[in-house]
Amino acid sequence: MNVNHKDKILIVDDSVPNVQLLEAYLAAAGYDVSCAYSGAEALAMIGEQNGSEPPDLILLDVMMPSLNGYQVCTEIKQRDESRRVPVMMLTALQDIEDKVKGFEAGADEFLSKPIDKMELLIRVKALLRTKHLNEDLESARNVIYSLALAIEANDPYTRGHSERVSEWGANLARILGLTEEQQDVVRNAGILHDIGKIGISETILQKPGPLTTKERIAVQKHPAIGEKICQPLRSAELLLTVIRHHQERFDGDGYPDHLSGDDIPVEARVISIVDAYDAMTSPRPYRPPMSTAQALEMLSREAGKQWDPKIVRRFIEMLKAEKSGS
Q: Does the active-site annotation cover 310?
């Protein structure tokens, strides 16, 4: 069961014989193994001050003096540099309450003592495979985000637009009482909602006059194009849905799927409003920016037609509260 690359595994156990046995199993399988004999030593080894990359996997004994495995796992998962590192807890404890306590501390897997070599190697390989798949998705996300911001930065009319939509959208989602996960979706969708415009001619996007029917149809393709570009983010299915539907209208006359009312995801309804407000109050090739009062009047007038009236009302309240400093 040899591995093709040197994944780094940290073994944490106060028992020297246990560490030596695990180290022998894992080193023979081709892993780069390091060892710590206490929770404090393990935390120091993966700390920022250590200057090295954190391990790819941590095997952590539960029953240790001073800092036990639950405490160490909690600290590992709270640190930015190590919270994505999978932790497999090793224990002779059999009660379900002990495992629940471990999962609450952030453990990704449990392995019962005495350790069976084959079971150990199979579970280690599975955890590492999952970690690397998540890293691939994260790399794809970073590339797509960088692309979105780079495209926008090259256009003086839209520079900073996505970041403002992201910030306003997340704040509005919080005020609406959406979950933290939904707030994150709105924040990410704010950055990525217009990435599909990379597939639209700059001549059309920066045209100083009205668009022809053909040009308007081309622009209306950008949500679906954006969804396709962001397909590598398959773990974020709701994010893709919001990107696709941020140009739907509350009355059903939007695009690309003519959804209406509550059939439009609430996250997309949020993005639609803050996106429109920022576009209205920013200069465009075909018009000067509207004043805040003009933009708010437009939002109020179109509430119930283009936008969700309840969310429009909360957005206006949010802007007024920001202006008053309350």
A: no
